Amino acid sequence: MTLIAPSLLAADYLKLGEEIKRMESAGVDYLHIDVMDGHFVPNLTFGIDMVAQIAKSTTVPLDVHLMLAEPERYIEAFANAGAAIISVHIEACTHIHATLKAIKKTGAKAGVVLNPGTPAEALNAVLSEADLILQMTVNPGFGGQSFIPETLENIEKLATWRTENNYNYLIEVDGGINQETAELAKKAGTDVLVAGSYLFHSPNLEIAITDMRR
């Protein structure tokens, strides 16, 4: 089954509570929250307090994507704020194995993220530790970018390694996801689709979600 995770980066911030309820009513599986620090990526977005407020307003699990330099400093705070999944970039972590262990210690699921230019092989040492692997299909930092098809090769490798080694991680994609690219990602082995503009700007949200699952 394909899981759907709307990215709140594309929501109307003046109506954020309404937007969250709309997604919850439509039966989404996660709410994807991009946390950016202006250092690891050139943008600023949601912080710890905002995540805590969102967690209080919904029963949908929060999929928190830390686009931060030194993300290990903030793991416990985001877990306490209500994150169900905390994902960190391998490019930002000096000690990725220890960071994933620290996430799991909080009770949250541990995710690791690959930028488009990072080969899947960079994760070989931690594939057995990860609960989720997020392949960025655009360069991180801004919404509304176009899907990078070359990232499908990483997804295919991750799906093959999972089968061959009996790993348990979910494969998630984020960036430029619409009906067409969702199909490509799913065929490559993706389990979780993060979509922003495509869902939040859809004239019929329920149909859009049904089509993405199919």
UniProtKB/TrEMBL annotation:
Reactions mediated catalytically: D-ribulose 5-phosphate = D-xylulose 5-phosphate
Entry's Gene Ontology cellular component terms: cytoplasm
Cofactor binding: number and manner: Binds 1 divalent metal cation per subunit.
Top-level taxonomic group: Bacteria
Coiled-coil intervals, chain numbering: none
Binding-site residues for substrate, renumbered to this chain: S7, H65, G141, F142, G143, G144, D174, G175, G176, G196, S197
Residues annotated as catalytic: D34, D174
CDD domains: RPE (cd00429)
Cofactor or coenzyme needed: Mn(2+); Fe(2+); a divalent metal cation; Zn(2+)
Presence of the UniProt keyword Amino-acid biosynthesis in the record: no
EC number(s) stated in the UniProt entry for this protein: 5.1.3.1
Record: residues binding a divalent metal cation: H32, D34, H65, D174
Annotated InterPro entries: Aldolase_TIM, Ribul_P_3_epim, Ribul_P_3_epim-like, RibuloseP-bd_barrel
GO molecular function ontology, one term from the record: metal ion binding
Pathway membership: Carbohydrate degradation
Keyword annotations: Carbohydrate metabolism, Cobalt, Isomerase, Manganese, Metal-binding, Zinc
Swiss-Prot/TrEMBL GO biological process terms: pentose catabolic process; pentose-phosphate shunt
Assigned protein family: Belongs to the ribulose-phosphate 3-epimerase family.
Main function: Catalyzes the reversible epimerization of D-ribulose 5-phosphate to D-xylulose 5-phosphate.
Name of this protein: Ribulose-phosphate 3-epimerase
Gene name of the encoded protein: rpe
